[in-house]
Amino acid sequence: MIAERTGRLPAPNMTVTLSQWGSITILLMVSAWLTLWSRESIERSLDLARKELAVRRKAEEALRESEGKYRKLVDYTLVGQYIHQDRIFMFCNKRFAEIFGYQDTAEIIGRNIQGFVAPESWKKVIQEIEYRESGEKEFSHYELQVVRKDGSLIQVEVLGSRIEYQGKPANQGSILDVTERRKAEDRLQASLQEKEVLLQEIHHRVKNNMQVISSLLNLQSKHLSDPAAVEMFQECQHRIRTMALVHESLYKSSDLSRIEFGSYLKSLASHLLHFNEVDTRRIRLETALEEVYLDIQTAIPTGLIANELLSNAMKHAFPGKRSGTIELALRPHPEGSYLLSVKDDGIGFPEDLDFRKTESLGLQIVSSLVDQVDGRLEILRDNGTEFRVVFQPPRYPRRTSGQEM
Hints:
The chain is built from nine helices and twelve strands. It is α+β, with helices and mostly antiparallel strands and 405 residues long. The longest helix is centred in the N-terminal third of the chain and has 65 residues. The radius of gyration is 48 Å and the shape is elongated.
């Protein structure tokens, strides 16, 4: 247009015109680039949105699958599960409904928990719930009776805890039907009581039979004129009485498998003092007996050992009018063993006599019984005589079920 009017090209203004055309060109290029970039950006955004949606759908499917597995796990477990809020059932699984005799959990949800608890157990339930609500207990573990749909009562074991459910405090728990287990335990307890009564009766009869034998020996000894024979009969009576005393102690004990041996030895020593007509003003008996429990397999041989050693001291340690003291001791010893000691300050055991090779029947019996209880026999001759027996209770093999009564 300038050239048309002037007929020539204006040099100074040409640069401006070219700049204007260049600016327009640049603007057009930028506009085209921005349009292209926006389209690519939108496509990328859409692509990202599609991927995010796919991931979300996959996560939702995984969540639904997980919830389904969890629901099956909860529904088909052997333990009933429940949640109650303000004493109203908000949730329970199928096993919970089955325990109470219902076909569907909908028959339980929304009902008050008191309708499912036996009246005599309601106080216990409320007490445990209050413990958890007050924070005094974190968990509750107890048993109670509950009412089934048909009105029958069953025994259940409950484990409950405090939780938050839908933003409010609630109680959750699990229950297990232990009715059959309790019945089995009751039958077993009754059977055990019957066996205990039977075992007590056996010990009682054994003790009575031994007393009869002792009485027969006493009657027979009255027809003997030989003092040595009479003494032999009396010694047999002592031994029988010693064994009978073990059965008598077991009969009177609440534990029929073992006796408190210290008390037994005290009774045995008292009996021997009376039976041997010991003058207690001249010969004193001192005891240091700790609480030691032995089973019958150990108590009888150990009791016979004590019988022989005490009888020997009472008969031979203080001849004539000699006075003195007999000390009877029982205490635990290292490595699970025990020490039984019979000591006197009498005339003493002959130095040249080997108690292991003596002809005395009593000491022969002692040596044999010490081996039976896996023991060790020592004799000390310092200011009298002391017999020390360190013994280990035998470890008998456990009975098999076929050997039980």
